[in-house]
Amino acid sequence: MLLEALNIKKMYGDRVIIDIDKIQIHDNERIGIVGKNGAGKTTLLNILTKNIKPDEGIVRNLGSIAYITQMDEGIENTKSGGEKTILKIREAFSKRAQLLFADEPTSNLDTNKISWVENEFKKYKGAIVLISHDRGLLDNLCTKIWDVEEGKLQEYRGNYSSYIHQKEERLECQKHKYEQYINEKIRLEESIKDRKERASKIKKAPSRMGNSESRLHKYKKSIKQTKLQNASKSIESRLEKLTKVEKPKEYKNVKFDILESNKIHSKIIIDTTVYSETIVRTILARLLFNGHDINKKVEILSGGERVKVAFAKIFLSDINMLVIDEPTNYLDIESIEALEDLLIDYEGTVLFVSHDRNFVKKVADKVIIIENEELKDKDKINKGIVSFAEEKEEILKLEFKISETISRLSMPSPKEDIEKLDREYKYLLNRLNEIRNKIK
User: Taking the CB of residue 419, how many other CB atoms lie within 10 A of it?
Assistant: First the structure.
């Protein structure tokens, strides 16, 4: 075991950010952390790496640690976002730590660099715990998913796709239990009503009864009423317990604008838009700001939440064209999907730069690729960027296999089949040339 955390709790003001009983990380695990913006994912990493102290609980690090942070502290501003990310990754890899933490390691990277990061992570000799909105990376790399929600951590075995399937099953099970609770609640309420009606109908003793008969009648009546009252209390007690059952939650499968930190974010938008408060709240709701989230001050918003507020301001501006640079950076997966739907419904023109393959596939109807200082126009998304990105990824894999095969041919072991290796080398080389010619 490389790390253990017990009974960790972290609060900001009166809001509980993290409240987790137990975490363990073992050798060579590949763990992806998912959750809504503001759920506490980065806070959790900072606690586990001891960059911040929990209000309660202990963290035991039993192995060496490296941490690829989300922000760019200490890196010169002349470098691009992608160059800064690569520098941080190379520096972390050079430490050869037993446990590597990474917060959005593919942010600002192009498709080729994302593939490079994915391959390097796969080869890493140690455990990895990462936060990422890249669904492809979580699918191809992770063997376990941590879902952070309302301060709690739910663990799922398998990759991201497996997590989605398991979570849907768990939520369906919760829904079924909730429906059972509703049916039981209705049955008990009707039962209480029926028993009270029966109790009220118990007749008084007839006037011509003797004293002994009257006492007997009252005694029997008392027994009946006591039984009915006890039964009603029992049912009401069960009903009270049932009412405490929570309804299961539904699961939904830029340059930063200047935001004054001491103001409520929805008020900032209302003060700067020509649209009504109702429309402002509707846009914020579509970006997953609901309930008390609407009245949060900017200073307590997470990085992803600030991005969404900036988007809301842009959507509600008096413009008909959006130009966005890497819109999915710092957003959780659910927020990315909400942004996808919002951009698809947007009536104006959208020009965006993104290396999120799933996002591009869903939102764009025309794709321009820049390569070797030239523009390549791909009119149809499914035959354009997706196939192009997949082919570029395959080129990287083929080049790696060719290099490995050449190494084996130059220094063959006694057990190596040289002819087979030679045939494999020629096949890989031909395949590589085919793909390169195809995307020219």
Answer: 8
Q: Are residues 211 and 316 located together in one domain of the fold? A: no
Helix or strand (DSSP H, E) at 182: helix 160-200
Whether residue 153 sits in one domain with residue 13 = yes
Domain count of the chain? Answer: 3
Same domain, 212 and 359: no
**Torsion-angle region of 9 (φ positive above 0: left; ψ -120 to 50: alpha; else: beta):** beta
Q: Determine, yes or no, domain membership for 411.
A: no
Are 74 and 150 contained in the same domain? yes
* Residues making up the chain, counted from first to last: 440
pLDDT tens digits, the chain, 440 residues: what are they? 899 999 999 988 778 889 999 999 999 999 999 988 778 898 999 999 999 999 999 999 988 999 998 766 555 566 777 788 888 888 898 889 999 999 988 877 877 788 888 888 999 989 999 998 888 889 889 999 999 988 899 999 999 888 888 888 887 777 777 777 777 778 777 777 777 777 666 555 455 545 545 444 444 445 445 544 555 555 555 555 545 544 444 433 333 344 444 444 455 555 556 567 777 777 777 777 776 666 677 666 776 777 777 777 777 777 778 888 888 877 777 778 888 888 888 888 888 888 777 788 888 888 877 767 677 665 544 445 545 556 666 677 677 677 767 766 766 666 667 777 777 778 788 878 877 776 65
- 148 with 182, same domain: the answer is no
Rg (the chain; Cα; Å): 31
Residues 146 and 45 both lie in one domain? yes
| Residues 46 and 146 reside in one and the same domain | yes
Sequence letter at residue 62: L
Beta strands 99-103 and 127-131, pairing class: parallel
Q: 347: domain range?
A: 265-364
pTM to 2 decimal places: 0.53
The CA distance from 367 to 381, in Å, is 7
Through-space distance between the first and last CA atoms of the chain, rounded to whole angstroms:
49
- 394 in a structural domain: no
Distance (Å, rounded) from C-alpha 269 to C-alpha 283? 11
Measure Cα distances from 332 to 42, 303, 329, 343 in Å: 12, 10, 9, 16
The residue to which tokens 């006037």 are assigned: 207
Any long-range contacts for 302-307 (C-beta under 8 Å, 24+ apart)?
A: 302/37, 302/38, 302/42, 303/37, 303/42, 303/70, 303/330, 304/37, 304/38, 304/330, 304/331, 304/332, 304/335, 305/37, 305/38, 306/256, 306/259, 307/37, 307/254, 307/256, 307/331
The answer on 225 and 278 residing in a single domain is: no
Query: 183: helix, coil or strand?
Result: helix
433 within domain boundaries: no
